[in-house]
Design brief:
By secondary structure, the chain is of the alpha+beta class. It has 17 helices and 16 strands. It is 35% helix and 17% strand.
Length: 508
């Protein structure tokens, strides 16, 4: 059954006490130096709600657990101005058709890496088809490459933030998906939908098994701590605080379903990470060849060469980057970094470095149009070899669950990434200016973001403030003549060059 789900609107009209920032103008912004900060409901006020919740907006499909509990999967409303493909809608429908209690899907705990999660396996063509209980009893714990299932599992992740575990925030993956469509990113961000589940069933089938499988394994210390905390919370929701970021008001566990499929980049994109976690590795990230090219004052072709030359002086970067950094690859990478730095700035992402993936593709030109297909090796397929296809790594951001939460650190902002950029994609800039202007006028995008993602007042205020700050930084660079709008990877692949676009710095 499908129904329309909407949030109850938050109260408005919160005063700007405690900001100490200066006069408030007529559209509700405070002057702080050269950047005006939005005064939206609850901005930085201790009295307002601080934590995200399950109150998302979209089309819901409902399921019933063996205990008679009503669960739901919600495909969130699409963002105004976003470019969604038919494949996006199909993937949303595919996720929301999965019945956790049907005969063709099994649920297993994720017992690798540092965070917990549920792996949803398709059993349709495997030896356990029709018998998920047998699969869960016999095959859970094998990991992603589970030959007893069909293909790679769908990932179902919830928010778990404790002192002993890594940071995981489900609502963050939802907002990354929809904003990626709004900015029409070249970096792939997987489709994500909201999903709730009977906590007792999840505890019985998944968390109890995750706690047992991760116990006594030194490499899974954080993973085990998270499973232990999740199992305790499922038995007593009030033991986890804030309860609303993990459970619905009626006590269901909730999270997000998505299907990331990329392979992890090495130092060529993730950086050397030799300076340690936090600020250090985020500065190392800015020394990679594509980021160095984005920082160059030179025209595009010269910037690419400069980025390669400087980065490859580092032996680790030279070894990882090798011959992959062709001009075509570099322009795609530069565009992907435009997306990464913008999205991560807006959502205060604290755990990007080391979590950037890629998918290999062949790209070629046929009758003036760019074509592509996944690559299974570096030898061009026979049917397209005549077109001289180019092998490229296409970036995927599949791990976006350490953003939005107020306790997370915005390392993109802290290390000044946006201020250093000298090349940009015109479309991304114009969409940012459009978003900034809409937020200033409390327009339809303001209302959409405020009511769609289950954000608290303060989390929403942080997104608005970050948007205002990002727009101010890039607008100032534009007006100072520091930005070249020449990062257009498809145009470069088609013609071998890009004519920089001349745009109005103030207009979307």
């Amino acid at each position: 059954m499908e129904t329309e789900v909407r949030l109850i609107p938050w109260c408005r009209g919160v005063a700007a006490r405690g900001l100490g920032a200066g006069p408030v103008d007529r559209v509700g912004y405070v002057q702080r130096g050269r950047i005006r900060v939005a005064l939206v409901a609850g901005l930085l006020l201790a009295v307002s709600q601080a934590w995200a919740s399950s109150d998302v907006r979209g089309k819901a499909t409902r399921f019933t657990s063996p205990n008679g509990v009503t669960e739901k999967c919600v495909a969130l409303a699409h963002m105004p101005g976003g470019r969604y493909s038919d494949g996006d809608a199909a993937k949303e429908a595919e996720f929301c058709a999965i019945d956790f209690y049907g005969a063709m899907h099994a649920l297993c705990p994720k017992v690798f890496s540092t965070s917990p999660g549920t792996l949803v396996y398709d059993l349709a063509n495997g030896r356990h088809a029709g018998n998920p209980a047998a699969f869960e009893r016999e095959a859970c714990g094998i990991g992603l490459n589970n030959t007893a299932a069909t293909g790679q599992p769908v990932s179902y992740k919830m928010s778990v933030n404790t002192r002993e575990s890594s940071a995981t925030f489900a609502n963050s993956a939802l907002i990354y998906y929809h904003f990626a469509r709004y900015f029409d990113t070249t970096a792939r961000v997987p489709v994500a939908v909201f999903r709730s589940i009977d906590r007792r069933e999840h505890n019985r089938r998944v968390s109890s098994r995750g706690t047992a499988l991760s116990a006594g394994r030194a490499a899974l210390k954080m993973n085990h701590a998270a499973w232990t905390a999740l199992q305790a919370a499922e038995q007593n929701p009030s033991s986890y605080q804030p309860t609303a970021e993990l459970f619905t008001p009626d006590g269901l566990l909730y999270g997000v379903m998505l299907h990331p499929s990329g392979k992890r980049y090495s130092e060529e994109i993730n950086g050397t990470r030799q300076s340690g976690w936090g600020d250090g590795q985020n500065r190392d990230f800015q020394e990679t060849a594509p980021f160095r090219a984005l920082r160059s004052e030179q025209p595009l072709a010269a910037a690419i060469e400069e980025g390669r030359r400087i980065a490859l002086q580092n032996p680790k970067l030279a070894k990882a980057t090798g011959s992959d950094a062709t001009p075509q690859q570099m322009v795609f990478w530069m565009s992907d970094l435009v997306d990464i730095t913008l999205l991560d700035f807006l959502f205060s992402q604290q755990d990007r470095i080391g979590n950037i993936d890629y998918l290999p593709y062949w790209l070629w030109v046929d009758e003036g149009r760019l074509q592509s297909r996944p690559a299974s090796g570096r030898t061009a397929p026979a049917d397209v070899a005549a077109y001289k296809p180019v092998y490229l790594k296409r970036t995927e951001l599949g791990d976006n669950d350490a953003g939005l939460r107020l306790t997370y650190t915005n390392f993109t902002k802290r290390t000044g990434m946006l201020e250093k950029l000298r090349h940009y994609r015109a479309g991304a800039y114009q969409q940012l200016i459009r978003l900034d202007l809409d937020f200033r006028s409390t327009g339809p995008l303001h209302e959409y973001v405020r009511t769609t993602f289950g954000l608290s007042e303060r989390e929403f205020a942080q997104v608005v403030a970050n948007t205002v700050a990002a727009a101010a930084i890039l607008r100032d660079s534009c007006k100072a003549g520091h930005l070249r709008f020449d990062v257009e990877p498809e145009e470069f692949l088609l013609t071998g060059r890009v004519a920089p676009k001349d745009i109005d710095c103030d207009a979307p």
